[in-house]
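@channel sequence for tomorrow's demo:
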Amino acid sequence: MDTITQEILEVLEEINTIPRCSGHEENIANWLKEQALSAGLSFKFDSVNNVLMSVPASKGYEASPAVVIQGHMDMVCEKTQVSSHDFSKDPIRHIVEGDWLGANGTTLGADNGIALAIGLVLARHREIPHPPVELLFTVDEETGLTGANELMPDFISGKILLNLDSENDGELIVGCAGGLNTTITLPLERTPFPADHRVCRLVVTGLAGGHSGVDIHEKRANANKLLATALSTLMDSTSLLLLDISGGSAHNAIPRHAEALVIMPPEQYERAVSIVRWIEEGARKEYGEYDPSLSVTISMQAADENLQPVPQDMGREIVSLVEKLPSGVIRMSEDLPGLVQTSCNLATIRTGGGRTENGNRRDLWLVIVTSQRSSVNAELHDITNTVASIAGSAGADVVHSSGYPAWQPDPSSPLARRCTDIYSGIFGKAPEVKVIHAGLECAVIGSKFPGMDMISFGPTIRNPHSPDEKLYIPSVLRVWEFLLALLASFGQDPKASKNR
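structure tokens (generated this afternoon):
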């Protein structure tokens, strides 16, 4: 491994000792401030803990335009079902397998810790030719782009932004989808626990999951959808009652695991086992290529007298609601082949309440979160209305998030032309200039800072937002070399730069 890649990965490993799940970035923000102080850099932070470090221009670049290098501090905290990792305190454990860097049973956090690492290593190497650089590190990108949304007009001064949050070396991203989340809440009733019933646990697990934007077009199973299929089939063949249902862990991750507690007469259990085995076989035939570890099982559980089932008709309504809600690709782009234009992710399902506490009953409810994305505002509106209509027909309350806008490509972007020329000159081939279906902070930053010329790139990351996340190590050096050449280019004669 070359020395610069080793240095970047060592910084990433240090970053990964600091808990930084979305919404809990206090420690990593404080660590970044300490890094700025130790490097002798001026820095500032705002009310939500966005951090900006200012790296002075190298000699001869003082008059060059300031460049903002941007990434986000937070990470999606996903782990395998068998992992005992505690994201609130445990460090991420790195594992190197050949040319790939992964983690031990958890997300790696290269999305987007690698941006922080590259920015900090750049700040340490004062000999590198570069214009004034502003290192902008934002909070809570993964759950709602909170940090970008809270940026104030005077927080940054540069009008050129390099976002290091893309995941395929050799691609330059010039646009992205917009999106918003929908929270569906359905009040539930309860019924007494039949004395002759037994508790069973129905589990869908072992799925690949992945990023609900980047991977949504892959033929991967959604655990929540598959669980609903299993419950519906069992309800048709047994007198099953639903106690509890849960699935998924984040709005921007395809659900990998879902489960339900149910009750049924013990004489129906063997029939249920046969049905579940049949469902698993069918799911493996349909999704086995992308989800080879897919598993659907049912097993007897110890009874919990404090649990109360929902009435049978209401259980069917819950399952029907989950089955009807859209999930996956809604429409592909006609203008850009291979690009998902509109999608919906049936992200999380939870029930709450329903237990007795000191003889007092608690309310029972069902909460479902869906995540809609589209590069066309009208289609984002349409698919969100579809979700709301389906939920409303079931008697549920619906609340939509404020969402984030699409980043529309700018065909006249001088930065995109500059990047294409430089990449081609270094690597002997043109980069792929793309629009992606994932959300990027560029969309929000561009709307808040008019005239910002932006591009996004980064090293290759596979399976972000899942415990299978891994970073392709050789791509780190390629991104570093491209970044340095790009920064150096801003020291050229202004007329030459303008004409690129």
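heads up for whoever presents: Residues 269-287 form the longest helix (19 residues).
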